[in-house]
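In the previous lecture we treated proteins in isolation. Real proteins rarely work alone, and many bind small molecules. This record shows how such a complex is specified: first the sequence, then the SMILES for guanosine-5'-diphosphate.
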Amino acid sequence: MKLHKFTATTFTQAMNRVRKELGEDAIIVSSIEERGLFHITAAIESDFDTGRKSFDRIYESLDEHGLGELTKKQIKDLIRSLEHKIPEPSECLAASLDQILHFNPFDLENLKDGAGVSKSCPIALIGPPGAGKTACIAKLAIEATVLDLNPIVITLDAEKAGAIAQLTSFTNALAIPFEKADTKEELSEHITTHNGLVLLDTTGLNPYDDNQIAFAKEMLSHAAAIIVLVMPAGLDMQEAQDMIKVFKTLNPSYLIVTKIDMCRRFGNVMGLSIYSGLPLSYFGHSPHISSPLIPFTPIELAQMIQFKNSFLVK
Ligand SMILES: Nc1nc2c(ncn2[C@@H]2O[C@H](COP(=O)(O)OP(=O)(O)O)[C@@H](O)[C@H]2O)c(=O)[nH]1
Ligand SMILES: [Mg+2]
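The predicted 3D structure, ligand included, written as tokens:
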């Protein structure tokens, strides 16, 4: 809804301007006299209609994302309470999402762990197999190179067939150093001898394999890494909840959600953040490493919810 303001020296003159510019159907929202001047705020019916329809569309679209009933009610109540203050519907939805979820795209140049402690590095990505960790490592390595942070990629994923080839090919192409570490000692040596940002790629973890989780925990705490949980969009929420419970034992500080491009419903993406208690930091929307991770903001999520991702296909 767009408000129009008119000022004149008499009420009649101000009303004449309203009628002239907005027509006979103009709706008077307020009129005040202040130090001899009359101020009228008015809107036209069609503005109300369009505004109302967009808000109605937002309420409808919230029903299409598989949100839990409680979260959906919470968002709708927040939108209702903010509608009059934020008349632009997508901004109002974004402001409501901002109150329910945490958004924190980390700054590669100034990383902070969950306790808010500033650290220079390393960053380790953890998550289930196929989540897109290695693709994210490649995208972060490109960003780090652009920022002149002199990145090195170290993998703890030496066993997976193809993992080394995948990493060798992009690190060679970008002229980024690449090492693998099978033991704590090897990991320490690579970290201490490199002067720059350390990006740690890990083995895809089966959360129900206690040995894998214990090994990852030992290696990552030894590396004193800031840990980022990488989860794909579109997972069954109950399965995701169970996985998150285990991954939380590795003390992640941030959440990256990948494969947003393969998703048209975003309740599950919100659920990943709500259940993990982790801030949405970046999202991946392409398998191509030249397509960077995008900072997750309330506006981005509001657009996903409103337009079901059609905004990505530009
Ligand atoms: N469509 C799409 N595919 C992705 C995305 N991120 C990763 N992939 C693909 O998902 C597959 C698994 O990714 P990979 O990085 O190897 O996963 P990892 O096992 O967690 O290291 C690969 O084929 C990637 O190209 C994304 O954001 N969108
Ligand atoms: Mg991998």
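Summary for your notes: The chain is about 45% helix and 20% strand. The longest strand covers residues 27-34.
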